[in-house]
Structure prediction request, 63 residues.
Amino acid sequence: MVNLEGLIPLLGGLYALLLARGILSASKDVSRNEAWRRKWGPKLKWLAPLVMLFGLVQLIGLI
Prediction:
């Protein structure tokens, strides 16, 4: 049974991963964006895939 609530952490984790890798910008100001990525990028690079995995597990109905 598919649980569509799993899409929220799946897409949120994907968004966080794209921000951490610099594919998307957190701010239009380049210097603020770089400062944000230096502060949060390393943490989100390992945390975002875990959130995505949780969303996938929730989506396919294991939780």
The chain has one domain: 4-60. The two ends are 11 Å apart (CA to CA). Residues 4-60 form one domain.
